[in-house]
Amino acid sequence: MTKQVKKPDRREYTFMLVPHHGQAGVRSIHVPILAIKCLAAALCLLVVVVIGGVVSYRHTTVTAGMEKAELEQLKQVNGSQVKQIEDLAKSTAALEQDMERLNTLDAEIRHIVNENDNGSTSRAGLTRMTPGSAQYTGQGGPNPPSLEEMGQTLEDLKKNMAAREQSLLALKEELLAKQARAAVTPSIWPANGQVTSRFGYRSSPWGRGSDYHPGIDIASDYGTPIVATADGTVVHSDWSSGYGKLVEVDHGNGIVTLYGHCSQLLVKSGDYVKKGQVVAYMGSTGLSTGTHVHYEVRVNGTAVNPDKFL
């Protein structure tokens, strides 16, 4: 059987160009069908390319829009995180100031109670390691906290520090009040020397049986300093009958102290004196058998045993 060979298509299309009246004759243009097919294929290819370009452009545009939206979202998230970090930094700075204030308050309270901290023991009772004494190098810990956890931790610290500050302030006020009460409460000896008479009934130094002695007598050398036994206001500094030269100090709360038989008075009425301040010198003025100071404590006008305040 003989195989038929396909002959090339030699058909063609004829295009006739008819001019207007008065011009040259009719022209004929012969276009092979193969050329038309090639032109049609080229047009189809061009359409496909154009459509592909449009689709690709639209896809690129959509993708770019999505990427732009994601970028804007990332910018917002980053901006939010930056603000959170800034807020945390401000909160940390505020906490540092709070800690400084609490440390100052703690130091003031320690000064009030005269407490010495040698730094070897912590408030929890654990022994602190001194610098350079570490013998081990083990380290570790959990995963780093998130921003939310850090923020919560800072809030908890703020609340705890506020509570601690209020507690320390209350303690400080209490200690100051206690210190103020102690300052105006007679609690020291008015002078150095030997006690020659106690409070209460005693044998009369003038040989007349016994008499009631409303204070204590402390004898020493002439001119021995006499000090106020508490803070207070001088309400009398002058001669007073059998007391001789007398200093009387009002300490408030109904408590008054008297220092009699002085040789010289160093304060005047209206002066405010501190505990331990020299107010007079020892002598033997008034009704006295020798150099001494008569020390007397009165509560609401009644003489009480000074031993209760020493």
- The number of E-state strands comes to 14
Oligomer: single chain
CATH architecture of the domain at 194-309: Distorted Sandwich
Question: What is the CATH level 1 assignment of the domain at 194-309?
Answer: Mainly Beta
Number of helices: 2
Largest sheet: 10 strands, antiparallel
Here the CATH topology of the domain at 194-309 equals Glucose Permease (Domain IIA)
Please state roughly what percent of the residues sit in beta strands, choosing from under 5%, 5-15%, 15-25%, 25-35%, 35-45% or over 45%.
15-25%
Order of helices and strands: EEHHEEEEEEEEEEEE
The percent range for helix content is 25-40%
Distance from N terminus to C terminus (CA atoms, Å) equals 148 Å
Uncertain residue segments: 116-134
Fourth-tier CATH superfamily name of the domain at 194-309:
Glucose Permease (Domain IIA)
SS-based class = alpha+beta
Which term fits the overall shape? Answer: rod-shaped
Overall pLDDT score: 81
Radius of gyration: 54 Å
Question: What does this protein look like?
Answer:
The protein contains 2 helices and 14 strands; from the N terminus they run ββααββββββββββββ. The protein is an alpha+beta fold and 310 residues long. Among the domains are: 12-80; 194-309, Glucose Permease (Domain IIA) (Distorted Sandwich). Strands 3, 6, 7, 8, 9, 10, 11, 12, 13 and 14 form a 10-stranded antiparallel β-sheet that branches. A two-stranded antiparallel sheet has the order 1-2. The longest helix has 80 residues, at 33-112. The radius of gyration is 54 Å and the shape is rod-shaped. The model is unreliable at 116-134 (pLDDT under 50). Residues 116-148 are annotated as: Disordered. Pfam families: Peptidase_M23.
